[in-house]
Task: inverse folding
């Protein structure tokens, strides 16, 4: 079984709709992240959480919100989706005790906003 | 402005030859650098990393070189194999803060 899972894997929605992307992990990591990938821009950080009660904005948080329901679950919401939020979204985890800063990624969610 | 840049969007190499992927950064506070590999329909997977106290780190066919004065790092793959065909992302962090800044990626194609 995958250590970091994301649901759904693909989603098509319309402008103005509310969308939630979910992420679960079995790695036991305390840190969780949401990124989006756009062609030529790499991965950009949307939100991150170092613990259940800790939520921090990343580079491009406008238009997004998150919820850390438990150590293993971190969901990303688009309150009112717009076409330029069409992208590939990745959840990632990391462990505070590791100096390496290595993060472990889920398989991604492809979101299309029409 | 992008703090981590991969100026080559794509690279094509013959099987068995060396692949060299380059990455430049502008933030002098970055002290840890990583390379990730991404296949289609999968998330990025960690490949190799290097701390700023080193200038080289090797793991099998993969070697990362860091030139701090030039703010440049490179990933060498020797010998290249068709299974290495993927998108490679360079990433950097500062002060072990666990925040990664990614480059735009380079698509490597290894031809049989």
Result:
């Amino acid at each position: 079984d995958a250590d970091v899972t994301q649901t759904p894997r693909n989603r098509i929605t319309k402008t103005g709709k509310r969308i939630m992307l979910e992420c679960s992990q079995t790695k036991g990591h305390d840190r969780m992240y949401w990124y989006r990938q756009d062609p030529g821009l790499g991965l950009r950080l949307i939100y991150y959480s170092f613990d259940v009660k800790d939520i921090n904005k990343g580079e491009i948080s406008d238009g997004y919100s998150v919820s850390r329901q438990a150590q293993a679950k971190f969901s990303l919401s688009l309150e009112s989706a717009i076409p330029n939020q069409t992208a590939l979204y990745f959840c990632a985890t990391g462990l505070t005790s590791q100096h390496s800063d290595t993060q472990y990624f889920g398989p991604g969610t492809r979101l299309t906003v029409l | 402005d992008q703090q981590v840049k991969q100026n080559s969007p794509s690279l094509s190499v013959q099987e068995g030859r060396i692949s060299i992927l380059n990455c430049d950064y502008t933030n002098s506070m970055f002290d840890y650098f990583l390379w990730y590999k991404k296949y289609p329909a999968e998330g990025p997977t960690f490949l190799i990393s290097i701390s700023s106290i080193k200038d080289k780190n090797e793991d099998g066919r993969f070697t990362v070189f860091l030139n701090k004065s030039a703010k440049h790092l490179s990933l060498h793959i020797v010998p290249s194999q068709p299974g290495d065909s993927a998108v490679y992302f360079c990433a950097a962090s500062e002060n072990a803060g666990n925040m990664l800044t990614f480059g735009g990626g380079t698509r490597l194609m290894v031809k049989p």
Q: What stands out?
A: DSSP finds no helices and eleven strands in chain A. The mean pLDDT of chain A is 92. Chain A touches chain B through 25 residues (CB under 8 Å).
